[in-house]
Design brief:
Layout (H helix, E strand, L loop, with lengths): L14 H14 L4 H17 L6 E11 L5 H11 L4 E8 L4 E11 H12 L4 E12 L1
Antiparallel strand pairs: 1-3, 1-4, 2-3
């Protein structure tokens, strides 16, 4: 965005994330890490800010986690049972010996879905979580 005031900040990222970003930049000819980080943060925050609205939402939570770290699987199941009213269905895929991908279909008040996401992302072993809203209703 031209004319947008830019502020400098420092960010520490894991080595594998930096390598992933560098591969992306090379493959697609992107010249600015700052642009990638700004777009990623904008997408992440925008995706979650609307969850604070007092509406109902239907969507998907996609989780990638290491099932061998701590009590990841047990804690994921415990959280899902706490939100049984908001979870429609769960699908589980084995990505590798240690890594799993889970897709949770949700429906309910935005606040509850937001709480569910927060609880999941705070579980040790969860490496990535993405929420894809499908419908926002009154």
């Amino acid at each position: 965005m031209s004319g947008t005031r830019r502020l400098k900040t420092g960010v520490s990222l894991p080595k594998d994330v930096m390598e992933l970003m560098d591969r992306y930049m090379e493959k697609f000819g992107v010249k600015s890490r700052s642009k990638i980080i700004a777009e990623a943060v904008r997408s992440y925050v925008t995706e979650r800010l609307w969850l604070a609205e007092k509406k109902k939402v239907i969507g998907l939570i996609i989780i990638i986690y290491n099932e061998k770290k701590g009590e990841t699987v047990k804690k994921l199941l415990d959280v899902q049972h706490e939100f049984i009213g908001e979870i429609i269905s769960t699908t589980h895929f084995h990505v590798s010996h240690d890594m799993c991908l889970e897709v949770i279909m949700t429906k309910g008040p935005a606040k509850n879905i937001s709480d569910l996401i927060s609880d999941i992302e705070n579980i040790v072993g969860v490496e990535m979580i993405k929420f894809l809203p499908a419908i926002i209703t009154e």
